[in-house]
Amino acid sequence: MAATLRDVASAAGVSVKTASNVINDRPHVKPATRAKVEAAVRELGYRPNLTARGLKYGRSGFLALAIPQIDMPYFAELAMHFTDAASEAGYVLLLDVTRADVEMERALLQGVAPLKVDGLIFSPLRVTAEEISQRSDSTPLVLLGERAVPVGHDHVALDSVAAARAMTEHLLSIHKRRIAVIGYESAEGTASVRLRGFHAALDAAGLPHVPEYEVGVGQYERYEGKAAMERLLALPTRPDAVFCFNDLMAIGALQACREAGVRVPDEIAIAGFDNIAETKYCSPALTTVAPDLDVLARESIRLLVGRITGSRTDAESVEVPWEIHVRASTVG
After folding, report:
1. Where do the DSSP E strands lie in the chain?
2. Which CA distances in Å does 276 have to 14, 16, 252?
3. Which residue, 177, 242, 296, 320, has fewest beta-carbon neighbours within 10 Å?
4. What is the pLDDT confidence band of residue 149, given thresholds at 50, 70 and 90?
5. Mean pLDDT value of segment 267-289
6. Of 50, 62, 73, 17, the residue nearest 280 (C-alpha)
7. CA 65 – CA 82 distance, rounded (Å)
């Protein structure tokens, strides 16, 4: 038999009402009590009756995660973390892939969807902050990513400026001075943020910004990283380190070096960003920035469920922790 709310309350030693308050993320529950109820939910494998809850509260029990791509390892891994976090909160997660199409992103903002959802987690690439602020749909929304977001919206992201600066400082610490970047493509978005961190580290070290060492790409894909690395290898003075703004491009850069007979990291150190699973198994294993995707997913779901249940009204901006994973592509 499936566990009931009464079973959860009994296992936690609280009233059914208190257990319900915790599961529905209502305020004014003591942290210790909340922890006991959440432990009972996990132990018993409790899943709320979404149909009954929908009838009572006018909700569907569905959340949507809108991401640009699913065929990139980072977004696939992110979706799995969100699926787990949503399930633990008693929701079913639906996935919407926008393909970074501006019209699809605009439609999402206006609530155009085949199924009703109780809340939306959205990683936009093309729509502007102004467009987001002008959305007419009232579905609760949490924004992801490092693009500018309008005031009054919940937002979850890592500090890419600090992370990119830390990675550049790691390369400087191993005595690299001709450091290039792959991935800069415009004055807006993720790449521009990471470029700021890269420049900040160079400035602190008293090193110049070399335009030839900042290579733009069209897509954050392996083949783009490979082509960009080939351009860098063809320069009269090659860089001695390359920081790629995602891991897929870094893996492409590694391939370019293998084909050219360039030893990594002896001749050129290579680093990435995202810590996808592939980074541990490529050759050499890739040094990368590792964001905590579990925290990203859980905090996003917490913010969204709070909006849905009415337990939160003020906008929050949550910073996701990260760390540098140093591997053989920079230290041998």
Report:
1. 62-67, 92-97, 119-122, 141-144, 154-158, 179-182, 214-215, 241-244, 269-273, 287-291, 317-320, 322-325
2. 41, 42, 14
3. 177
4. confident
5. 97
6. 73
7. 8
pLDDT tens-digit readout, 95-121: 999 988 999 999 988 886 656 899 999
Q: How confident is the model over 182-210, as pLDDT tens digits?
A: 997 765 678 899 999 999 999 999 999 99
Mean pLDDT over 138-161 rounds to: 92
Split at pLDDT 50, 70, 90, the class of 295 is: very high
**Which pTM value belongs to this model?**
0.82
How many other CB atoms are found less than 10 A from the CB of residue 290?
A: 17
The torsion angle over the Cα atoms of residues 183, 187, 192 and 197, rounded to 10 degrees, is 120
Tell me which long-range contacts 28-37 makes (C-beta under 8 A, separation of at least 24): 36/12, 37/8, 37/9, 37/12
> Which of the 8 DSSP states describes residue 213?
G
Asked if 255 and 271 count as a contact pair (C-beta separation under 8 A), the reply is: no
List the one residue out of 291, 293, 289, 288 whose CA is nearest residue 327.
288
Q: Are 133 and 150 in contact (CB under 8 A)?
A: yes
Structure tokens at 152: 């009054």
CA distance 295 to 199: 28
The identity of residue 98, as a single letter, is T
